[in-house]
Amino acid sequence: MSTFNGQGRKLCCNFTEDWRTPFMEYLAQGILPIDRTLVHQLKKLIVRYFLQNGILFRRGYNEDPLRCLGPRKAREVVKEVHSDDYGSHPRKKRLYKQLLLLEYYWPTMKNDFE
């Protein structure tokens, strides 16, 4: 049993460790979780997500598409942005804003940098 987190909500389901899987399966194939509560939660969250060329995106606050990253890719991007900041280490809030400007998203990113 694994969890995925959408907008601060943890949902348990029988999927992989990648939080994007339920969203992608529903958008691409109409596959829903078995649990009715999870179905309701997924359908409530899915309105902000879309697939483009097999890549999951979330609509940002200004409707900008944010590329949804899995856990491993999110760690890679954080390291890259952190090291590319001209030798200085950006504060957590600044790092979070930089990642949004680069149009990246994962559900825990705001909490990861507070």
From TrEMBL:
Domain Integrase zinc-binding span(s) in chain numbering: 73-113
Protein name: Integrase zinc-binding domain-containing protein
Source organism (scientific name): Quercus rubra
